[in-house]
Amino acid sequence: QQPETDEQADTTASTVDDEAAHVPSWRVREINEEKRRFAEENERMKAELAELRRVSQQQQPAKVEQPKADRPDPLLDPEGYEKYLERRVEERLLGNAREESLLRARDTNPQEFDEAYAAATKAVDAALKARMQASRDPGKTLLEWHRENKQRAEIGNDLNAYRQRLLDSALKDPEFRKKAMDAWRDGAQSSQPESRSKVELPPSISGASRARAVARSSDNDDISDQVLFEQIAG
Length: 234
Prior knowledge:
73% of the residues lie in helices and 0% in strands. The protein is mostly helical.
């Protein structure tokens, strides 16, 4: 077979199949370039995801196994096992008592207890936690802590200013003003000197005074001694 001449090759290359889809070469190069960039981006994202997973696993704290309670062997250490059981019973009884204390405190003061519980949950007070753990009545301890905080917030750091606020508020109350006025009036009256008391004269002097009055007012100058004595003697 004779080799194809240049003229024949040009003729073959210039022959176009009207039925085939014609894609320009520049578009083919663009498509290939897009595929390459997409593959590179995909590989980069995979690498970043793997790195994020690795870092996340390193940052997670390792799970620390809680040490199990040292439970003595009942055969090898019967005395220690007995004390262990007693301690467990005491802890359970104490836990039940504390739970009953909280329930009792809520039944007695439901609104105040709910406020105290919400405040304690929000505050996360380590001192309160220690107080409640050491108390045999944690419900009462919780309410006392809440009242102390409310009182401290109301009074503040200036006791004199707090007293002045109380006084200003009381003076706006009509009932308080009435009581204050009554107390001031009673105090003013008790501070005044006592009025001069009536002097009681002896009967003889009193009778003599009456007799003189009668003698002056009477038109009769001849008053007998008997009448004068009766006036004096009363």
